[in-house]
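seq as requested:
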Amino acid sequence: MSIAKKFEAFCSNIRMDDYVVDEVTGRYRAITNMLNEDFHNYKSYLNNSLYVGSYGRGTAIHVSDIDMLFILPYTCYSQYDCYNSNGQSQLLQDIKKSIAKLYPGTKLRGDGQVVVIEFANNIRFEVLPCFVIGDGIGYKFPDTHNGGSWKVTKPKEEQEAINKLNNITNKNLKRLCRMIRAWKDMCNVDMGGLLIDTMAHNFLETWLYKDKSFLYYDYMTRDFFRYLSKENDKQAYWLAVGSNQRIYNNCLFVAKAKKAYYNASEAIKYEENGQESSANNKWKEIYGSRFKN
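struct tokens:
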């Protein structure tokens, strides 16, 4: 099988199945409608919510959690901000109570900034309640840690930056982001989704073959991991694509990126020498069993 066909099949194999996407859409709309009823006093399956995280950026794979943002009326902000202690925790509890009416037999919990919904079929939603801030670009959300505080997120800027580069790189950016998530899962890499997308974006901006097709995905794999392996392992944070917000992450991924770079280089040598089975084994060491022969 050619390199192009191998990577095209792999990129298809790590996508979320259509029936799962349909299920996610149904639950997203039901949650949105329930929260609108309780906090906006009207029914709507679409208003005041937004897919965020990997799913919202279009870089999720088959095992990804579903992150959604729900916008509350700004009048509610004063209500929770005026609590003597940790109104942010109370906000999460109120969101949880609303969703519990919709899914009474489902495990729900507040988790720092979000309400987590654990569905029986291993689909997990994380609902982030928030308020539109003055500039209309970002959203203020609760953080229950250390007595409670408000933080800011700007997911639309991140989504726009990913979409823009994806459009001019022959859809290679989002595919690379998904491939790196497969590596993360296969090799147990300590690296968050936004950092993955930021690194992939920064790499592809200047990569020589950024607009080529699947035929170059062996080189893209090798060159990305070489790029990642050269990150400063003392660095405390990176600036997120689009929003420039800080992403805090340790650098434990650097050593594993070096190993992936070595495996990719070896796989390419095997491919060039006609040793396809050995090459496939190396690709699987990077990407796992969804990379098939």
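The first strand starts at residue 49 and ends at 52.
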